Amino acid sequence: MSIDLIANLAYILAAALFIFGLKMLGSPATAKRGNLLSSTAMLIAVVSGLISADVVSYEIIVGGMLVGGVVGALAARLVAMTSMPEMVALFNGSGGASSLLVGWATLYLGTSDTTTFTAATIVLAILIGGLTFTGSLIAYGKLSERINSAAVVFPMQRFLNAAILLGIVTCAVMFCLEPSATSPYLYALLGLALVLGVMAVIPIGGADMPVVISLLNSYSGIAACAAGFAVGNNILIVAGALVGASGIILTNIMCKAMNRSLTNVLFSGFGAVKSAKAVEGEVKPVSVEDAYYILEAASNVCFVPGYGMAVAQAQHVVKELGKILEANGCEVSYAIHPVAGRMPGHMNVLLAEADVPYEQLVEMDDINPRIENVDVAIVIGANDVVNPSAREDSDSPIYGMPIINVDQARTVFVLKRSMASGFSGVDNPLFFGENTRMLFGDAKESISGVIGEFG
Amino acid sequence: MEIVFLTFILVLSVFLGFELISKVPATLHTPLMSGANAISGITLAGAFLAAGTTSNEMASWLGGAAVAFATVNVVGGYLVTDRMLSMFKSKRSTQS
Q1: Do B59 and A234 touch (CB under 8 A)?
Q2: A296 shares a domain with A168
Q3: For testing the chain B interface, which of A20, A50, A58, A61 should be mutated: the one with the most B CBs within 10 Å?
Q4: Domain match, A126 and A180 both
Q5: Cβ contacts (< 8 Å) between B88 and chain A: which residues?
Q6: Model confidence over A163-175: pLDDT tens digits?
Q7: What pLDDT sits at residue A224?
Q8: pLDDT averaged over chain A?
Q9: Which A-chain residues 171-190 have CB contacts (< 8 A) with chain B?
């Protein structure tokens, strides 16, 4: 049996294990083993890649793996759970960069006549890989607030983007007609792909980041797929397609949760649309002491966290309060909107970090039908995802977005630093609701205060 | 013929991927994403071909850089996913 045959058989095994691993990621009880299975698959694929007959020199490979391994391990170990969105953005970017480089290197790999098909797949790998790389860097910058996270819109933007796209198509065609490693069109493509990534992400505001991260995640898979076509490797195609599909599904879920189409998220800077009715009314502040009396008497409490909980690092005190309420005979749940936070599942991870059992994390569609039985809904750092104007005010920019109907709970506590409007700049009539009490101040301190009253 | 064969694999994998992942609950979306990130480090297998060649220096350097980037994904992705999943506990295990 030739070495290549063995390697290919091993790839089949790896592909099967990847599929099983992803399947097991579908339930919290088996997810950890699923991840282990998937990493075993990766190990098999890597070893069989290494023994391939085409690999003759190992110095550079070992060097690259050492550098990458150390960086990856340190990043995975040191990152705070609240910074997970930035981390995932960076990982997306490095996947894209890797596919770009594989596509590019394939051109130098000797086979004197690159077919048009191979050239086209190389173009795709470079294009999608490059776009993913710089797009992810911008997403990282926005998420970590190193650059302004608001949507950047300037005159002639669409014209410029169209020109870039036109340039890419032209260069791609010219390159495919005469593929060579020294073609000037290749370098033009490289540059344009990198610029396109920047241009694609700057007009997208911080609140839309869950969509962007999912989409970039998908791109990194598709780029791996294209690189797989370029080098003619099955396992790259299978694994890349799985990742691509997963990213697309998440993107779709995020878009639905905001009631917006993908085109709308990608091409229109948010806030430039219809202006909502200004909301008038009187807010009713509540003191920590009064909050305690209400909570003490409640028998069903539901926490609704948002990005503000991550910023205030309040997940641990939230869990502590939850535990005290439970000991007091109260039923406690945590309702999580699909786009709460800055990436899909962001709030779930934070609450899991604070040791909240996953049975208590409920989805929007589960809590809404029984929200009327909730005595106190505690909104922590969430705004748009609980804004009733999404249901009632057809002029509101977020009209039609599915929300958690906390205003229909018996009492609502809103923990808020001040009366500023949310990320999308939309007023929130919830704050003026008959059954709403505002608990002003830092979320972490307010909750600690309430815990103190119980103590 | 090879093109048809590779495309065949692509199409089947895409369908399989949609089938598999549409069932993942919202709770696990972040680990799913970082796990998918780790899997996209599979470009490593392609990068070896370029990095391990002696026929062209440019190819081996580009390949080496690709190996480094892909390894960040693989090592970082799996470790961070494992770290997150270790935090997801059921009611029974948090009380014990």
Answers
A1: no
A2: no
A3: A61
A4: yes
A5: 28, 31-32, 352, 358
A6: 999 999 999 999 9
A7: 96
A8: 89
A9: 181
Give yes or no for A43 touching B (CB within 8 A): no
Which residues constitute the domain of residue A360?
288-454
Task: Write the residue in B32, B78, B90 that is nearest to A358 by C-beta.
Answer: B90
A296 and A178 in one domain?
Answer: no
A220 vs B33: CA distance, rounded Å: 11
The domain boundary residue, chosen from A200, A232, A267: A267
- Whether residues A214 and A336 fall in one domain: no
DSSP lists the bridge partners of residue A304 as A379
A136 located within any domain = yes
Which CATH number does the domain housing residue A374 bear?
Answer: 3.40.50.1220
Residue A60 lies in a domain: no
Domain final residue pick, A214, A236, A267: A267
Q: Residue B72: which of A31, A68, A84 has the nearest Cβ?
A: A68
> Does ipTM exceed 0.85?
yes
On whether both A218 and A322 belong to a single domain, the answer is no
Considering the domain architecture, whether residues A262 and A292 belong to the same structural domain is answered as: no
Question: Do residues A429 and A294 both lie within one domain?
Answer: yes
Q: What percentage of chain B has pLDDT greater than the value 70?
A: 95
Structural domains in chain A (count): 2
Nearest beta carbon to residue A220 from set B31, B40, B53? B40
Which residue on chain B is closest to A237 by alpha carbon?
A: B10
Task: State the Cα–Cα distance between residues A313 and B76, nearest whole angstrom.
Answer: 24
B89 chain-A contacts, CB cut-off 8 A: 352, 355, 357-358
Q: Number of Cβ pairs closer than 8 Å across A and B?
A: 391
pLDDT digits (tens, 9 = 90+) for A404-434: 999 999 999 999 887 665 555 567 888 888 8
The rounded Cα A134 to chain-centroid distance in angstroms is 16
Report yes or no: A119 and A179 within 8 Å, Cβ to Cβ.
yes
> A346: distance to nearest CA of chain B, Å?
6
- Determine, yes or no, domain membership for A11: no
A355 contacts B49? CB cut-off 8 A: no
Nearest CA in chain B to A364: B26
If asked whether residues A353 and A323 sit together in one domain, one would say yes
B28 contacts A28? CB cut-off 8 A: yes
The catalytic residues of A are 384
Average pLDDT over residues B73-77: 96
Inspect the interface and report whether the beta carbons of B85 and A32 lie closer than 8 Å.
Answer: yes
Residue A9 lies in a domain: no
| CA B48 to chain CA mean position, Å | 16
Instruction: Identify the DSSP state of B41.
Output: T
Contact (CB<8Å) B47/A102: yes
